[in-house]
Specification:
Length: 253
């Protein structure tokens, strides 16, 4: 699906995908998920594309799901745009190189767990407020985040919804480097371009070895998806989203 809310460009054999909804902090709609899934599928199937570079326009990476759009278009079924996108993350055969500029909320954090090189700008801030919205983690993050930052740190992030700033994310291993905001995008694209210039089969095999447990990841993603879908239709989520829109504390009784 074509949309100007996801900018798509191929340069130096790198597919560049840019969240392009800066007025909404790049909050993701189902239309944007479709475009992202299409882009990742294209990269997987096109031998001329050797790497994928992902970033956000403006001062944000992404604020996560657009809650109004999510409420009106709940992701029910494997063919839902968000589920297609998550599935393509798991199936990706080319390196995913991400420049995190500004906030990375919800799926903006969990998608990084499927990415290969993740570099943050100094102003980057990460959070996964699923429980705050009466939801559960997605993108197999209940499996992957504890592996990366440890179980107690992951529980802290999920249960409290607290924010991680770039230096703390670096210490925990969520990102591999921190750059100044000015050097971030050109610097990370240079890394993607350098990877794309390397021996393609060696790169693909290395990624495959690093991402060997795709079956376990897909199984956890499916399990999370069942809980996520049921919660989306619950009174808890209705209250959580209504409270968020009304800028008040939710009342769960």
């Amino acid at each position: 699906m074509m949309t100007d809310l996801i900018l798509t460009e191929v340069e130096h054999r790198v597919l560049k995908l840019t969240f392009n909804r800066p007025d909404k902090k790049n909050a993701i709609t189902h239309e944007m998920y479709s475009a992202l899934a299409d882009g990742l599928e294209r990269a997987r199937e096109d031998d001329d594309i050797r790497a994928v570079y992902i970033t956000g326009s403006g001062d944000s990476f992404t604020a996560g799901n657009d809650l109004s759009d999510f409420r009106d278009n709940p992701p029910l079924g494997r063919d839902a745009p968000v589920n297609r996108f998550l599935g393509e993350l798991v199936k990706a055969t080319k390196p995913l190189v991400v420049a995190v500029n500004g906030i990375a909320v919800g799926v903006g954090l969990t998608m990084l767990l499927h990415s290969d090189v993740v570099i943050a700008g100094k102003s980057a801030v990460f959070s996964a407020p699923f429980v705050d919205l009466a939801l559960v983690p997605e993108a197999a993050s209940s499996l992957l985040l504890p592996r990366v930052i440890g179980t107690t740190n992951a529980a802290d992030v999920f249960f409290t919804g607290r924010k991680l700033h770039a230096d703390e994310a670096l210490t925990m291993g969520l990102v591999s480097r921190v750059m100044t905001d000015e050097e971030l995008k050109p610097g990370v694209f240079d890394i993607a371009r350098s990877i794309a210039a390397k021996a393609p089969q060696a790169v693909k095999l290395t990624k495959s070895l690093l991402r060997k447990d795709s079956e376990a990841i897909s199984a956890r993603m499916l399990e999370e998806g069942g809980h996520f879908s049921s919660q989306l239709q619950s009174a808890e989520v209705l209250e959580a989203i209504t409270a968020f829109m009304q800028k008040r504390e939710p009342n769960f009784g």
